[in-house]
Amino acid sequence: MQKSEPVAGGTPALEKALAGEELSYGDGVQLMQEENLFVLGSAADKLRRDLCGDTVTFVSSYYLNYTNVCAASCPLCAFYRKGGESDAYTLTTDQIVARAREAADQLGATELHIVGGFHPKLGLDYYEKMMQAIKAERPKVTIKAFTPAEIFFIARLTKNSIKEVLSRLKTAGLDALPGGGAEIFHPETRNKIVVGKCSGEEWLDTARQAHELGIKSNCTMLFGHIEKPEHIVDHVLKIRELQKKTGGFTTFIPLKFSLENTELEQKGLVTAESPSPYDLRVIAVSRLLLASVLKNISVYWVALGKKVAQVALSYGGNDMVGTAHSEEIFKAAGKSSGTSLEELASMVREIKREPAQRDTFFNIIRRL
């Protein structure tokens, strides 16, 4: 990494980051609590430019949620159902293949992003048949499916090891894992926002095993609810440590919590979504903490909103995730989703950056 130019008025932690030094936990907390936001953003933007240049990438992606039935009951989630509700559903293999065909043929999707609830009655064969059927129908589409949290649950439910589940799914056609279910690793926050889901350490261990089998993944962090700044730093540093060991993460995606229709809202534990300056701070600090090991920081416009997402691309972000056709999880919490490659490209050009369509593994397909 090239050494960035100095930024006037920064804290010692910021000076370390700009000198190319790895930041400590204490440095990260200092940046979250003390650093001037505009100075912080300027530093993150310089590091982004050094690492990634002025290209902003995104993938043509179709989100396929195979079930909303879930054994977990997380207060942060507006998507899950317990199975008896009128809007509870589980897709058949034929329905999934039909959607995959539509995604590839009509929407030009190169990636299927497949996630769902922790269904208490689906066997491993359901997931294997899903992968096999999609690949038989559209072999060129990349299948990015099942978060580490889902893999952990499937292994427990079917009494298989995590390695066995991952190996069988890879054989069936799985190409990569999405990074959901990470939420916040620190138990002080996690135990209040997650019920019936793996621990932070179990999520990290599942991701590690995937990487060791040659399955790449992204990684996420859900912020803007009840976490403390220390928990943000703790989470990002745990991602950094695993990345040093495996190199298996393709990008880090800080996900802004969406409040509407969640139990956290209904119980009054969170009364408003996080303000934009906080969102930008989290993204900038993530860039500075991960600069030495993970090149890509993704800005999820579905959660942030398109205008704030554009600003976040000047606070360390270099990727806009993707088109998110048919996304249901954030939609359940009141966020609109689905856009075109052309609109994403236009958003990038508006801020004088260079848009490019990529594949799941951050290879450039074409400049737009």
Instruction: Please identify the top-level CATH class.
Output: Alpha Beta
Give the count of structural domains. Answer: 1
Give a short account of the largest sheet.
4 strands, mixed
Give the overall shape, derived from the CA principal axes.
globular
Binned, the helix content reads 40-55%
**In what order do the strands lie side by side in the largest sheet?**
8-1-9-10
Which structural class is indicated by helix and strand composition? alpha/beta
**Sequence of secondary-structure elements:** HHHEEHEHEHHEHHEHEHHHHEHHEE
Strand content: 5-15%
Report the CATH topology name: TIM Barrel
Q: Identify the CATH architecture.
A: Alpha-Beta Barrel
**How many DSSP helices?**
16
> What's the N-to-C terminus distance?
27 Å
CATH homologous superfamily caption: Aldolase class I
Tally of DSSP β-strands: 10
Whole-number radius of gyration? Answer: 20 Å
Q: On the 0-100 scale, what is the average pLDDT?
A: 90
Description:
With 368 residues, this protein is α/β, with parallel strands linked by helices. Helix content is 44%, strand content 14%. It is built from 16 helices and ten strands. Helix 3 (37-52) packs across helix 12, helix 4 runs parallel beside helix 5 (124-137) and helix 9 runs parallel beside helix 10. The protein is globular.
Describe the secondary-structure layout.
Layout lengths: L11 H7 L6 H9 L3 H16 L2 E5 L1 E5 L27 H13 L5 E5 L8 H14 L4 E4 L2 H11 L3 H11 L3 E2 L9 H7 L6 H13 L3 E8 L5 H18 L2 E8 L6 H4 L9 H15 L10 H4 L1 H7 L6 E4 L6 H4 L8 H10 L3 E5 L5 E4 L1
Parallel strand pairs: 1-8, 1-9, 2-3, 3-4, 5-6, 6-7
Antiparallel strand pairs: 9-10
